[in-house]
Design brief:
GO terms for molecular function: DNA binding; single-stranded DNA endodeoxyribonuclease activity. Keywords: Cytoplasm, DNA-binding, Endonuclease, Hydrolase, Nuclease. Cleaves both 3' and 5' ssDNA extremities of branched DNA structures. The structure is a single chain. The protein has 232 residues and is α+β, with helices and mostly antiparallel strands. It has two domains: 92 residues, Protein Yojf, Chain: A (Distorted Sandwich); 111 residues, 3-Layer(aba) Sandwich (Trna Endonuclease, Chain: A, domain 1), CATH 3.40.1350.10. Helix content is 17%, strand content 42%. The protein is built from four helices and twelve strands; from the N terminus they run βββββββαβββαβαβα. The protein is elongated, with a radius of gyration of 21 Å. The N and C termini lie far apart (70 Å). The relative contact order is 0.12.
Length: 232
């Protein structure tokens, strides 16, 4: 049967399972106890008890999840629009629950980060020459993108703004761009990671993902002259 992904409920399954991914490459997770999370937006993620927030394997929404109960053990086959598949074999189900989480107000940025985003929206050329704003807080199924702009060549530019640039922010930008790429009307899309300071590891990761990164001066954006930057 098909589990109604995107139905508004989050399904949490703790099970002894093995997982096989087939797509751009092949990957296998041997049998072990894991948490399988099917989010309301259709994202499917498999977590171990470790590794912080990052899943061992996942499939971003939109997906189709088919539950095959004729065989023993039961299998879930998750397929995305690119025909990549994630096959989860459930050797033993320990817990299977579903929960309605309701609407989420989203992450509340601290004052500096929120104001930084506001200043950059007003002056996108401070990020890159010729950049023009399309929309601030551009909506996607996984949350709003800080800024979506256009460059002089007409390329769509997704901008993620942080006060301190770390690896998590680069990963967040990558997820947003995956969502934008589902909309063919946006044409070519690229990413820019912007922060007051960016850690070296985040710079390397951004470049490896094909993103550019920009460090900006918050006080300069606020129009403060150098001689104003004094305590006494």
């Amino acid at each position: 049967m098909s589990w109604p992904v995107g139905s508004g409920a989050v399904r949490l399954v703790i099970a002894r399972c093995s997982v096989d991914y087939a797509g751009r490459l092949a990957a296998h997770l041997p049998e072990a106890n894991r948490l399988i999370m099917v989010k309301a937006d259709g994202c499917v993620a498999i977590h171990a008890d470790g590794g912080a927030y990052k899943p061992l394997n996942w499939m971003n929404a939109p997906n189709k999840l088919v539950e095959i109960t004729d065989d023993d053990p039961v299998q879930w086959v998750v397929t995305n629009p690119k025909n990549e598949t994630l096959t989860i074999t459930l050797h033993e189900v320990i817990s299977d629950t579903a929960h309605e989480l309701g609407d989420d107000p989203g992450l509340q940025k601290d004052g500096v980060e929120a104001h930084l985003q506001e200043l950059l929206a007003a002056t996108p050329e401070s990020i890159e020459d010729g950049l023009t704003l399309v929309r601030r807080e551009y909506p996607t199924a996984i949350g709003p993108i800080d800024l979506v702009c256009k460059d002089p060549e007409g390329t769509t530019v997704a901008v993620e703004v942080k006060r301190r640039g770390e690896i998590d922010g680069v990963e967040q930008l990558a997820r947003y761009i995956e969502r934008l790429e589902l909309d063919s009307s946006l044409g070519d899309i690229r990413g820019v990671f912007v922060a007051q300071s960016i850690k070296p590891q985040a710079k390397v990761l951004a470049e490896s993902r094909g993103f550019t990164w920009v460090e900006v001066d918050y006080d300069q954006l606020r129009g403060m002259a150098p001689d104003e930057l004094r305590l006494f």
